[in-house]
Design brief:
The complex is a heterotrimer, with 1 copy of chain A (252 residues) and 2 copies of chain B (205 residues).
Chain A: E1 9-11, E2 16-18, H1 19-27, H2 38-50, H3 57-78, H4 82-87, H5 91-121, H6 147-157, H7 176-189, E3 192-194, H8 195-199, H9 204-219, E4 223-227, E5 234-238
Antiparallel strand pairs in A: 1-2, 3-5, 4-5
Helix pairs in contact in A: 2-3, 7-9
Chain B: H1 3-14, H2 18-31, H3 38-45, H4 49-62, E1 70-75, E2 78-83, H5 88-94, H6 105-117, E3 120-121, H7 122-129, H8 134-143, E4 146-151, E5 159-163, H9 165-170, H10 187-204
Antiparallel strand pairs in B: 1-2, 3-5, 4-5
Helix pairs in contact in B: 2-4, 6-8
Classes of the chains: A mainly alpha (252), B alpha+beta (205).
Chain lengths: 252, 205, 205
């Protein structure tokens, strides 16, 4: 069945095509939500609606849900730290703040169109960019210097190089697979564990590899991750729709 | 006012007739790469501000639009020479205009924000425009219309940007105070609100 | 010669009086950052070469040394505006840079090598420092602390460098014999050179 919303044709700076393709590309992370001008999508939809005789309530509802989701994705990406800030406001305050920003943006758009006109009226303004052809060269003058600095520079060049340390050659990276198995084992016993607690006491290199393993598990959809705030403990939980097919080690 | 008396006495001290000073000022203007302020002219000529202003007055008459192909203008807080408007077509055949390739809408909105609210950081610009400002800011910096101006206070503060003297020159502004007041630009906002209200009323009836 | 006749007839074809053409030419010259050739002026004005030469003649009279602070100069590549000699001192003050306090580490090492081991070639400086010396040497030459001093013997020998009287002045030395002694590095030039090269080789291996 054709949908008034998903087939909505868009012509934006960053995207041209139907709305559902735009959503797909954003969800597949092939398009930056930050680059999408959401107001234009709303305008396109409203124009689409007014072109018809009666209001399609189903389409409006679907549109509201989708555009709200898109707005949330974009807002989270644009203002990661500000989400919390706005969330603390009362709804009226948040609405007020939003209106204030919209008004400010509207004024800046006006200022931009004034600048565009000005650029047009000042078309005939030609002036030199860069130095004049026969301008004098700027003279670089040096303050008086101490000859002892010359001595220090030469002595520096005469110092034999230190013995090269080979300590880092001994650095061994444990295989990622080792941590994959370890985390899976923990999750068989408990549905949730705390990453920081689990890797406490390990070396920094081991912790780094453990973190890579965690990201691999997340990518495969085996676990869900939650973190209340930056640098807060990372909670790892068994993913509800745990994939039954066994994970095979592709990297590591 | 003892202006004539003062002029004579200053002359006697400095020893340079005003037309010789005017020649020195025009020489400085023809080699400078940026508009020169009265202070800079005073420092370079080692003369006094009042006499430099007098010399500039003489030169503005000589290098006036319509009278000369070289025009002396007050711009970006200083004085600079440019080509007369009459010669714009010939200039267009030989030189690129400073902002030859049209500025995109994103770039214009961004430079407007920097001009009115600067110094501002990229996150602030993004907050107002509702889209990431990175590429718009980068292109403005590359064109020389916008430059870095320190960082926001606090450790790791974001870089802030302001418009450059080139911005003022390209747009023919003596200073940013010549930008129109934002209140005066709000007309369309009102119109949009009224249109929305009209639509709502039509639906209700 | 039917010069006056020709001038009139050309005027009639092109339709621009010669003084208007001269204004356009001076406008082009004030925008240019390179000398402009007659060909370029002809292309930009869409006028003919003879009339452009005539206009340039008028401008050379108007913008002549002694009469104007802006001087029209014929240079190798064409025509360009410059500051009058009368204004040279004021221009010097305009372009004066603040005094630099010190030299970068690269410059200091390079000038030290040239002072103690000179004349030395760039390849030898590079061997001792373990990095290419081109930009360090070029900047020292530009500052006038180091100058060319012939070539190494043999065909295709590299250019060698020595320090200049300006170097001695900046470092407060009456002559190079006043350089502090480096007895811990061997004292004599040859000994110091061998010591430095030996260390450089150890560093490279």
């Amino acid at each position: 069945m054709p949908s008034a919303v998903r087939d909505l044709e868009l012509d934006l700076d960053a995207f041209e095509g139907p709305f559902d393709l735009l959503l797909t590309l954003i969800l597949k992370e092939q398009l930056e939500p930050a680059e999408i001008d959401i107001a234009s999508i709303v305008v396109a939809f409203v124009e689409h609606l007014t072109a018809r005789d009666r209001i399609d309530l189903d389409a409006c509802g679907e549109f509201l849900v989708l555009i709200a989701a898109l707005l949330e994705i974009k807002a989270r990406q644009l203002f990661p730290e500000e989400g919390a800030e706005l969330a603390e406001l009362e709804p009226e305050e948040a609405a007020e703040e939003l209106a204030r920003r919209l008004a400010e943006y509207r004024r800046m758009k006006e200022a931009a169109s004034w600048l565009r006109e000005r650029l047009e009226t000042e078309r005939a303004r030609y002036f030199r960019l860069g130095p004049a052809p026969l301008a004098p060269q700027a003279e670089r003058r040096l303050a008086p210097q101490d000859p002892a600095h010359l001595v220090a520079a030469l002595r520096g060049l005469a110092v034999p190089p230190p013995k090269v340390s080979l300590a880092h050659m001994a650095l061994r990276f444990p295989p990622v697979a080792q941590f994959l198995e370890r985390f899976r084992a923990v999750l068989r016993r408990r549905s949730v564990f705390d990453f920081d607690g689990e890797v406490a006491g390990l070396s920094r290199v081991e912790q780094a590899v453990a973190f890579l393993a965690l990201l691999e598990l997340r990518r495969a959809g085996e676990v869900a991750l939650a973190q209340a705030a930056p640098f807060a403990p990372i909670r790892v939980s068994r993913h509800e729709a745990e994939r039954s097919h066994a994970w095979t080690v592709r990297s590591a | 006012m003892d202006r004539s008396l003062r002029l004579i006495s200053t002359d006697a001290i400095v020893g340079t007739p005003i037309d010789a000073l005017a020649r020195t000022v025009e020489a400085l203007l023809v080699v400078a790469s940026q508009p020169l302020t009265v202070d800079e002219l005073v420092a370079a000529t080692e003369d006094d501000a009042e006499r430099v202003e007098t010399a500039l007055g003489l030169l503005r008459e000589r290098y006036a639009e319509g009278r000369s192909g070289i025009v002396l203008e007050r711009v970006a807080g200083g004085y600079a020479l440019r080509a007369s408007r009459e010669a714009a077509e010939a200039c267009g055949r030989l030189f690129e205009r400073p902002v030859e390739r049209g500025l995109s809408q994103a770039a214009l909105e961004t430079v407007a924000i920097v001009a009115y609210l600067g110094p501002v950081s990229r996150p602030e610009i993004a907050r107002i425009r509702g889209v990431a400002a990175d590429s718009a800011v980068a292109s403005l910096v590359e064109r020389g219309l916008v430059a870095e101006a320190g960082r926001e206070s606090g450790p790791g503060g974001a870089v802030r940007y302001r418009v450059t003297p080139l911005f003022e020159r390209v747009f023919g502004l003596d200073s940013l105070s010549e930008l129109p007041r934002l209140d005066d630009l709000g007309g369309e906002t009102e119109a949009i609100r009224e249109r929305l209200l009209a639509v709502a009323e039509a639906r209700a009836s």
